[in-house]
Amino acid sequence: MNEDTRALIANKFRNTPLGFSRIKKNLGILNYSNEETKKYLRNIILSTPLGDIEGKGKNYYFKCTINDVVLTVNSQTFTVITAKRVR
């Protein structure tokens, strides 16, 4: 992973309305709109240090210790597959 790839993912990631509702539930941000959720996820992607981003198989795993969140992003479609809190 490099800065350019991380920036590309931060600007191009996407999800469906159902996906956003699942992510909001998993992260405990149910009161966020889909647009606020996108901003929050973008912030997580950009604030994750490059050393904490792992490419495994067809996915990238963003392990953001600042927000205590792990995002799973498909490396081909840039869809956020899952998001979960890590304590």
Element-level helix/strand string: HHHEEEE
List segments where confidence is low: pLDDT < 50 over at least 5 consecutive residues: none
CATH level-1 class: Alpha Beta
The helix count comes to 3
Main-sheet strand order equals 1-2-3-4
How much strand?
Answer: 25-35%
Multimeric state: single chain
Q: In the CATH scheme, what's the topology name?
A: YaeB-like fold
Number of domains: 1
Secondary structure tally: strands = 4
The major sheet is characterized as: 4 strands, antiparallel
Which structural class fits the helix and strand makeup? alpha+beta
- Radius of gyration, whole Å: 12 Å
User: How far is the N terminus from the C terminus?
Assistant: 25 Å
Q: Determine the fraction of residues in helical runs and give it as a percent range.
A: 40-55%
- Morphology: globular
Commentary on this structure:
This protein has 87 residues and is an alpha+beta fold. It has a single domain, classed as YaeB-like fold, CATH 3.30.2310. The chain has 3 helices and 4 strands. The chain has helices at 3-12, 17-27, 34-47, and strands at 53-56, 59-64, 69-74, 80-85. A 4-stranded antiparallel beta sheet has the order 1-2-3-4. Strand 2 (59-64) and strand 3 form a beta hairpin. Helix 1 packs antiparallel against helix 3 (34-47). The longest helix has 14 residues, at 34-47. It is globular and about 35 Å long. The termini are far apart. The mean pLDDT is 94.
Quick overview of this protein structure:
By secondary structure, this protein is an alpha+beta fold.
